[in-house]
## 1
Amino acid sequence: MAWANWTDQQKEAMLLAMEALKKQIPQDVSITDGQLCPNCGHPATQRYCSVCGQKLSWKKTSIEYHGPRHQVVQFAKAMEVELLENDYKGGWKDCNSSFLLEKLDEEVAELKEVVKLCRFTEGNSGEKKPNLELRRNVSSEAADVGNIAMMLADICDAL
Ligand SMILES: [Zn+2]
């Protein structure tokens, strides 16, 4: 049924339903915006705005308060170390996605190899912890995977 043929009552009911649905899509609450409901501007304190019913997401606030968790910071440092070692190659601006996707598969395969050597991750609690060299290899291979994923996001203009 075309919108033009709807009665005013039907249109009003549909618009109300659409508005209610939109409020179910979480909107970011930000410290820089004064922790206000992004829909109506009322101070936000819970998962839903107490005034307009907008569903709220507190992820952004949490990142603004605490910064990234320490594993993410350590991982970013490991990524940067790998990037610095490869800067002489001239960066990834001219890489296309099919090249990078192939590279991602290679790096994932390398990560799988080193993770397999960390036998204790398979639940064999009796196995001793991996030595420093092995842990460094895991960190470096994981960072390579992270870097290729980051480059893919970057060439998609998503960062
Ligand atoms: Zn609100």
Note: The chain has two domains: 3-66, 70-155.
## 2
Amino acid sequence: MAFLKHFAKPGVKRKVLDLQSQEYERKRIRKFQSSWQHSFSWLVYDTEANTMHCKICRSLKNDSGGDSPLIAGTSNFKIDVVRLHAACKQHQRNSELIAAKSTPISQSVAADCLGKLKRAEYTRLVSKFRSAHAIAKHHLSFNLFKTFCKLDTAKGLGVGTSHTTDKSAAQFVSAIANVERRRVIQKIESCKFLSLTMDVIFWGVCHFMCFFT
Ligand SMILES: [Zn+2]
């Protein structure tokens, strides 16, 4: 085993390598790598101060505080420093804030929720208008409107609990009648000839047929 004396022991060799590595790191002059900005678009390099910082967190530092070196700016040009900042909660919260501020109100989450609410309300109103229209068309009692609404709910249509009374049914029918009245008036005003035929009369209800030309 005499030949082994020419080789350093494994433990000693590792210590030498560690010392060499520490010496290399101590003398190494790190520089900002512009390629980092491809992955981290918020990273800014200040050529005059020779520092890098996060433009998102810096723009919000008055509101959010924080002690990340990338807010004040740092010349510790290590990718790990950048990655650490990208992963921190403060930066992620600030990124969401900036994204929310730059998103048009019409595309925001709040606007989307409001739109869904409006669509749901619109769907409920359509069901109620149809029920009220059917009641009026078949000369049924407005008292049946509540039953119609309960039936729609049982079908899963979700018409809600508001505006389900007989008075509401009368209001829906009145609104339908007003729209139809305006439509008929427009037709009468624009037509050259008009013929009106009374079809049936019973219980005080008249059916008319109008012909416009
Ligand atoms: Zn940041």
Note: Residues 42, 54, 56-57, 70, 85, 91, 94 surround zinc ion (CB under 6 Å).
## 3
Amino acid sequence: MLAAHFRTRFSTLFLWIAAGSALLAGPADYQAPGGGSIQLQAEEGNRVKVTSDYWRLEFDLRNGGALDTIVFPHGSGRNLVRKPFETAVDRWSDRNAPSVEMKSSNQGNVLRLEFSGRMGAAGRQPGPVAFRTTWILSPFMARADHTLVFSEDVMASSVDIGTTAVRGDLNEFGLRTGPTDDPDRRKMAPARFGKVEGEGDEFIAEHHAPLYMLFFHRNLEGFDLTTASDLETWETALAGRGGAGLYRAAAAGDTIQIVRRPVDAPRPVRIRKGEYTFGYYLGLPRIVEKSDRKWKHLSFGNHPWPSDAEIARWAEAGVNIVRLHNDYAADENFWHDGAWPPYDEQGMAEMRRVIATCHKHNIKVVPYFSIHEFHPKAQGYSEHEAEWKRSNDQLGTVYHNHVGKGEFGAQMCPQSGWLDRRKSDIEKAYRDLGFDGIYYDWVMQLACNNPKHNARLHNGADGVIDLLAWTRRLIGDRGTLILHLYGMMPSIAFENFADLVVNMEEISGAEKWMRMGEAPIVTVLAESIPRSPCPSYRQDHARERNQNNISQLVLLGMFPWSGGTGGPVYEETLKLFRAFKPYKLEEYRFRDAYSGAVETGWEDVYGALYSKSGHALVVLSNTSSNARKNIVWRVKPEMLGFEAGRVAVRDASTGKEQTLATSALADGSMVTDLAGYEYRIYEVRPRP
Ligand SMILES: [Zn+2]
């Protein structure tokens, strides 16, 4: 009976797809060009597959439409999910639904799937709760909304939303607690990261909904879960009070169990008749075979504005994108966030000169904008502060981000009228000044309960996603979006919208010197969006610290930025850019220092490999301050990207070239000397 019932529903579904409905519910517009395609396939066996250029998701129509497969073809190619995502009220579960109806629609590259039915107990006995699960999927984004429909009051002691288990090798995690557990007065406590310690390790155990959880196999694949803006529903809607939930992750056997349970009560609680919607973003990194590793990026401001000669020097070194980052100066001559025009007449003329000179040299220019900050000196601030501010306490305290004797601005909430104001600021600057894209700072979700715009507990995630999709529409296929993710408040869901991610600011002020292997998980992530780490900002040993950093980053395929008008950090950065300028790195497949592609005889000397048909680059780098002589290095010939009996090996720094049997790359006959922090590129190509 069940099967027959299914079939009927299923054929209805296909008509729906064929009709290609343009219906797309919800207020936010998630259209965003430039991320590739998204495809819906429904197959025999009642499975629905959705494929982007980066991942494949599969939903099981026999079992409530539950998500049971996440595969990254350019990661391991193996399913991450060990136990399907399950939404349940006590013994009634969407996976036991007697039947499920699916609707789908698409618009542009945004696909909407809706699975609905009645939760069932074992044996598919229908219970008192219905469900409607909506997935909004685009190449940039996956959002789930689980609506539970109680047609009468129900006594229940547990409610699960997308509880699952994933592969045990996703053994690094991140957690940002929700605002109730956040000890920071401004509700900005950093994320916590760690590695699973082994069987039975319960590494996340919270009673309040976290803002964010991440599970990752370093350098390979993984995902994050970001609670959508409506925190109130997660926190209190069902149990009538906060802290009645369980958010837990633990190692069990060869899996990681992930429990998301807004109700986990020792005694049943009364859930009132009504509909409740729990939203979250599933952050699926855009994992590719070849990262678009083309960006060489600097920043500049107006103290002084860069000269035309300096800009010519940028171009000569291979710089291809710069950002106008001018969010504070002690003399108050800076771009106050939200102000227009940002400078006086002379300043505006200088800015236009810099933009035009950059364009002459084929360098793109993008302006800095903070998603959250509004400077009190900008127009409209005093009229809107009370309405738009992000606040968390009874007093409605405004959070000013002080610096020096002034401030960057005060924190606004993207779930308020601030979002539209921000869009109009950005659009005006983008169009009036001929920028080539946008740079965003403060790309994060922060908690708020300002009753002037929303008295329910919320966070800014939906507004941030809305802004990012809107920005991609603004800049189109040709514009470049740079997102700065603070490493202690990272987000795959947000950074997915970027062409280039600026990261590692959390360690840029650290006194401790950066060491290989200590990079935070979100810094390295996987072969996906290219990354431009922040340099060390410290003044003590500035050159050496950045030489140290670059000697490591060059092995991880990352090109840090620096300020663009002089100093030792700038010189070291240009030197790195110059070394790689001859190569279109986006055409190469990259294997980093941990891939095993290149091995050396010294423990602090590492190698990485770029390869494509007919050409490879071996990068050797000494991450120690001590010179190393007689470094024996070996390359796995099968990773070169081509087959040849003989190869030409050219030292790119000296120009010296030798022709060898290919076996010489692997037999230990390649030897190099490197000074402290020195890196060197060897070009390898086949010879007849
Ligand atoms: Zn708010």
Note: The chain has three domains: 2-283, 297-586, 591-687.
